[in-house]
Amino acid sequence: MISNLAQGVQAFTSNVYLVDGERTVLVDPGANFDVVERLESRVDDLDAVILTHTHPDHVGNLEAVKSAFDVDAWGYDPSIDGVDHAIADEETIQLGDHEYVALHTPGHKDDHLCFYSADAGVLFAGDLVFQNGSFGRTDLEEGDRETLIESIDRLLERISPDLDEMHTGHGPSVASQPYDHVELSARMARQA
């Protein structure tokens, strides 16, 4: 079960995904709202916090969540404050009831990861790609358009055209032909 705890929040935040199951994890704790209260109303315990990347809108609530649930955070670069454990490129991790492969996908930020489960048919895309062909900003520090395009191409090579769901860092999740949205993002990133 995947739910977005940032649904309806008016503050500037990323989406915050609670993945319930055998291993209950939070994908990106978000920022600028009380995510702990929303978590406590749904779960008694968290097994891990998983980070797509460490931009402030994705990790502003990290310390509050770690403190409230006595939980560690996992991300690509453990030298960054708040990241307790490294997730390597191509490493397999469990989110909920499914195994996901972590894909290092820089271009928006150097430590960016996407998480893909072929079995579940689910992609956590972070800020790499969004619905309707949108893609991550490359005008921030560590942003690079060519690297972003390479990362989107790599993602397209890994995910199945039969992908069921894409959960993005901002905006609505995509449950109708999400692969087509990723393909469109690859084209749009080349044109912009």
From TrEMBL:
Segments passing through the bilayer: none
One Pfam family named in its UniProt record: Lactamase_B
Keywords, alphabetical: Hydrolase, Metal-binding, Zinc
A molecular-function term among this protein's GO annotations: hydrolase activity
Domain Metallo-beta-lactamase: 13-170
Cofactor(s) for this UniProt protein: Zn(2+)
Protein name: Flavoprotein
